[in-house]
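Input C-alpha cells:
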C-alpha cells in the first residue's frame, strides 16, 4: 500500500514529506493507522546525527497512537479496530528478561530493532524500490506502520489519540521512573533536574506518589509556572544560585535534629553528564537514590568520587520508566481517563504532517513542551 510519511533522508536535514510504499503485516505483525504522534527529543537526537546507532534513510517517530487496520497470521491479542499505542520497548512475556520480572528490557526483538528492521530481518517500508529503515521499532512519522504484535499495547478506545500518543514515551518515562524505578514513598523529598516533557511527568509522578517537597531545577524561569502546574513545590534556576548548586540544594533539603541535607530521590532529565553528577551528589547521604533518565551524547561518560557511593548514595538508570509496555501502558491511559494524571496542558502545539519540521523548530527554541502531529 501507499502511505504518507516524513522521511529522514540524511542526518541534519529537514524531514521530507513523501509517499512511501508499505508492505502488509507478516506472521506475528500488525498494520496500524497512526492517528497522532508526538515529536520527542530522541527523534531530534537521531536526526541531528549525534546518535551513533542512527540509520538513514529512515522514518522516525516512536510516540504514537492509532488503530489496528490489519493483522498478520498468528496474531491473537489484537484485532482490526483495536485502539493501540506502539511500544519501542516491547513485552514478549517469554524471554529471560521478561520472565525475570526484574526488568522491562525485553530482548525478543532487540537485535533487529537496532538494525532498523522487523524481526525477520527485512523492512516493510520502501520508496522506489529502495529500503527505508524502521525507527525504534515504531516509525510513527508515517500515517501507517507495521509492528510486531508484542510491541503494541491495546488501550481504552474512548481515549483521545492526540493526547495518549504522549504516553508512548514521555508520560510513561517520567511517571514510571518515579513509580517503577525509584518506588518513591509518601512524604519523600525529591529534586528534578530539567523541566521539559520528561521532567514535568516526573513531577506529576512524584505528586501521585505523595512526595512532600518537590524541587524543580531548570535554567529557564518560564518553567517555574509549568512545574507548579504539575505539583512542584520549589523552583531553582542554577544561573541565579551564588556558589555551588549542589551545596545550595543540600542546604534547601536539610531537616531533622542532625540537619543533614540531600533529597531522598533525584532525577536527571537533561542528558547532561555534569548535571547527572550534580543530581547524584544532591541525594541524601546514606540512602539517597539518583535516577538517570536523560540520554547523553555518544561517547560521553559520567563521573563522581567513589566516596559519594560508599556513603550510601545509589545511582540508577531507567528506560521507558521501567514500564512493561503491554501491561503498564493501558493502566496509564486509564489513569489519564480517570483524571489521576494530566496530559492536555503539555500538548502545547498541534500540527499537520506537512508542518512536522516546525515541531522540531519549536523544540529547539524551547517554545513547546510537546508538539503533536495529527494525521
Amino acid at each position: 500500500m501507499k502511505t504518507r510519511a516524513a522521511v529522514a533522508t540524511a542526518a541534519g536535514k529537514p524531514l521530507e514529506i513523501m509517499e512511501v510504499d508499505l508492505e502488509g503485516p507478516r506472521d506475528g505483525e500488525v498494520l496500524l493507522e497512526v492517528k497522532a504522534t508526538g515529536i520527542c527529543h530522541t527523534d531530534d537526537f537521531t536526526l541531528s546525527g549525534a546518535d551513533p546507532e542512527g540509520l538513514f534513510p529512515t522514518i522516525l517517530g516512536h510516540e504514537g497512537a492509532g488503530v489496528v487496520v490489519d493483522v498478520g497470521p498468528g496474531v491473537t491479542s489484537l484485532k482490526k479496530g483495536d485502539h493501540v499505542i506502539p511500544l519501542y520497548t516491547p513485552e514478549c512475556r517469554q524471554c529471560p528478561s521478561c520472565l525475570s520480572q526484574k526488568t522491562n528490557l525485553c530482548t525478543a526483538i532487540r537485535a533487529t530493532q537496532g538494525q532498523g528492521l522487523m524481526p525477520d530481518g527485512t523492512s516493510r517500508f520502501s520508496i522506489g524500490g529502495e529500503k527505508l529503515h524502521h525507527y525504534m521499532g515504531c516509525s510513527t512519522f508515517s500515517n501507517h506502520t507495521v509492528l510486531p504484535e508484542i510491541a503494541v499495547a491495546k488501550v481504552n478506545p474512548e481515549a483521545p489519540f492526540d493526547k495518549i500518543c504522549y504516553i508512548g514515551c514521555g508520560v510513561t518515562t517520567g511517571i514510571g521512573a518515579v513509580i517503577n524505578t525509584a518506588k518513591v514513598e509518601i512524604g519523600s523529598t525529591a529534586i528534578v533536574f530539567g523541566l521539559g516533557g520528561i521532567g514535568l511527568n516526573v513531577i506529576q509522578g512524584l505528586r501521585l506518589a505523595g512526595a512532600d517537597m518537590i524541587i524543580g531545577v531548570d535554567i529557564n524561569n518560564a518553567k517555574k509556572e509549568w512545574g507548579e502546574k504539575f505539583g512542584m513545590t520549589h523552583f531553582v534556576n542554577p544561573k541565579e544560585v551564588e556558589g555551588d548548586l549542589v551545596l545550595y540544594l543540600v542546604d534547601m533539603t536539610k531537616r531533622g535534629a542532625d540537619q543533614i541535607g540531600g533529597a531522598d530521590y533525584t532525577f536527571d532529565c537533561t542528558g547532561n553528564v555534569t548535571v547527572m553528577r550534580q543530581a547524584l551528589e544532591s541525594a541524601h547521604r546514606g540512602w539517597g537514590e539518583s535516577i538517570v533518565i536523560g540520554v547523553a551524547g555518544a561517547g560521553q561518560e559520567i563521573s563522581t568520587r567513589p566516596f559519594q557511593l560508599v556513603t550510601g548514595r545509589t545511582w540508577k538508570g531507567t528506560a521507558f520508566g521501567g514500564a512493561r509496555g503491554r501491561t503498564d501502558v493501558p493502566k496509564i491511559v486509564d489513569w489519564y481517563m480517570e483524571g489521576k494524571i494530566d496530559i492536555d496542558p503539555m500538548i502545547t502545539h498541534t500540527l499537520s504532517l506537512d508542518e512536522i519540521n516546525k515541531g522540531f523548530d519549536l523544540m529547539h527554541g524551547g517554545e513547546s513542551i510537546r508538539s503533536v502531529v495529527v494525521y
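The chain has two domains: 2-168+343-374, 174-318. Residues 174-318 form a domain with the Rossmann fold fold (CATH 3.40.50.720).
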